[in-house]
C-alpha cells in the first residue's frame, strides 16, 4: 500500500518516507499499537474527569477493545491508504456517530445520563431537539466532537509524535493484525451494547438507527475519497508558532459553551468550521510540521484535563478519590504532551 506524504503533518520530504519493502520487527510495530489501545479509552472517558482514580483500570480493561480498537483501525486505514489527517478526522466523525447512535445509543436516549451526576444537563439537551428524530443537536455536537478530539485524534497524534519521522506515515499492522483488532473492536462494542441495553432498557427506533447508519456510511465514503491521498505541493506562506494554533483550539472549545440553545449550537458549529478551515490553510504551508500537529491535536485534551477539576465523575465518589483522579489526569496529560514535545524538539 502507498504511504504518501501527510498533507497536514508536513511529512513531505522524500527522506521522511519509508523505504519500500522495509519491515520493522514485530515488537517495535506492536508497541505503538498497545499504547494506542490503552490511551484511547483513557482519553475518551478519564481525561476530562469522568471517572475517579480507582476506576481508571476498569475503564482501560472494558472500554479499551472498543475505543482503542476503533482508534487503531482508523489510524491504520488512513496510513495503509497513504492518506493523512483529513481521512482520520472524517473516520473519527463516523466512529462518533456509530458509537453514540448505534452502539450505546446515547444520541437518542433522553434518559441516558439520568442515573449519573450529569442528570441536570437534560433540560439543556432537550432545548435543541430535532423534530422527528428526537435527537439533541447540542448533545450530538458534544458526543461526536469529543470522540473526534479525545478518543481518536489526540491519542493518535501523541503516539505518532513519539515515533521517528519516517515511521509516522507507516502502517503498524498487516492484514492478520488488522483482523485481530477488528474482532476485538466488534466484541468490545457488542459487550457495551448488550450491557447498556440491559441496564438502560432502551432501543432506538428504526428511523433513528437508519439515520445514524446513513450518516456513518456517508462520512466513511467521503473519508475514503482518492483526493485525500494525493500529494499536494507545499506553499510558501507564513505559518504561526504551534502555541498560537493550540490557543485557537482552546478558544474554540471555550466559545462552544458560551450560549445555550440553538444559538449556542450555531456558534459552536461556526467556530469549529472556521478553526478547521484555518488549520487546513496553515497546514498547506511549508513551515507546518509535526509540532503544529501535536499542539492542534492535543489542545483539546489539555483543556479537558484543566476542566476536570470543575466537573464531577459519572458516579459519586469520595472527594479524595475524585481529587486523586483529577491530579492523575493532570500528571498523565503533562507527561504525555510534554514528553512528545521534547521528543520532537530533539
From TrEMBL:
Keyword Disulfide bond found: no
TM region(s), chain numbering: 30-50, 56-74, 81-102, 143-164, 176-194, 206-226, 238-256, 262-281, 293-311, 317-342
Keyword vocabulary terms for this entry: Membrane, Transmembrane, Transmembrane helix
Keyword presence, ATP-binding: no
Protein name as it appears in the record: Uncharacterized protein
